[in-house]
Amino acid sequence: MENNFLLILKKKDFSQLWLAQLLSQTASHMLTFALILHIYDLTKSLTTISLVIIASTIPSVIFGPFSGTFSDKIRNKKILTYTNILRFLVVLLLIPAADNTLAILEIIFLMATITQFFAPAELSSIPLLVTSKQLVAANSIFMTTMYGTLIAGYAVAGPLQALIGSKWLFLLVALLYLVSAFSVWSMSEYDKKEAHRDFTLSKLVSSVTSIWQSTRRGLQYIRSKRNIFTPMLKLTLGWAMLGAFIVVAPGFAEQVLGVRAQLAGILLIAPAGIGMLIASYLLNKHKEWDKNAIINCSFIICGISLLVLSIYSFYASFGLSLLVAIILMVILGFSAACVYISSQTLLHLNAELKMRGRVFGIAAMLINLALGIPALFVGGIADLTSPVITLILVALILIIYGTSLFFEDNIESESVENFD
What we know:
By secondary structure, the protein is mainly alpha-helical. The protein has helices at 4-9, 12-43, 48-73, 76-92, 101-129, 135-164, 166-185, 201-206, 208-224, 226-257, 264-285, 291-310, 312-315, 321-350, 356-384, 387-405.
């Protein structure tokens, strides 16, 4: 029998959506790390890393709830195509603005705003292209691609930027978005929701009150469904951990590991991505594993991995100490992916079709907030103390939270999970 991954990828529409994800996320990760390095070169200030992350997350607060409602009203294919074209055009603006830090931050804000509408449409498309029994495999493919592009984007951005320069790198990223738009455009009209032909951008702007009421119903729906609220909370906290680590990583690489910031992507992010790929494979192979138990255990493993990594200076003098740090990053990536994949799968399984756009729009908002809020505090804590103390604090929080989950009442799933 053919592997589930191959069977799903043989679906033309799914493979086209997957290709669009592959290209757009590679572009996004390359752009993110390249902009961090580029702005650092302009300002020679590590605090600008926080500014990049904050500029990327503010749009989620403003547009996050509305993006889900937008996805529920407009066909996903149209949203995905137009947002990719807009991102292509916006990235081109970085070329003339390459020497202006403020202009770059404004463009980052604009890019994040567009992406906020892209994310829920992409995630809401997955259940429309595969059967319920293929959801775990489909989510694994998308999460594997996310981690694979994270590895590739962060690993090549630094060396590529040094080789061809920031402006040529921006042009390459823009072209990736353009090809991604073409991939989505070539899909069939897979989204069978009502077309809403009378729903235009001008009417969207003029009916903010109506949209907010619809979003508020989405929030009420999430709060009323424990089997949606709980995995969304865990997903958000998992991404908060990532946000904290991104802020601390450059300083930790230079001050503790003793390597250049440009190598942080290869030594820290890439091993974590490998761990994520392993987790994706195993979760697809063992669909019968209890997802809530996996999430709870993974928080504790994340905390322990970070704790051991943070005290690197105590064993740095021993042989193969850097290899130990890399292995810890693999374990950290593995456990983090278990949180992300399992939580997202539970949301897909438990959310009603008519509410999925709003659920994932709100989820995208919370994830972006989780990435941005640590930038306000973690960077300051690291500057006042050290990256080591900051990582220890994050590790202890994860361990305490993961342990507390085992003392909560078991959540009875309201969805039918019938995997052969």
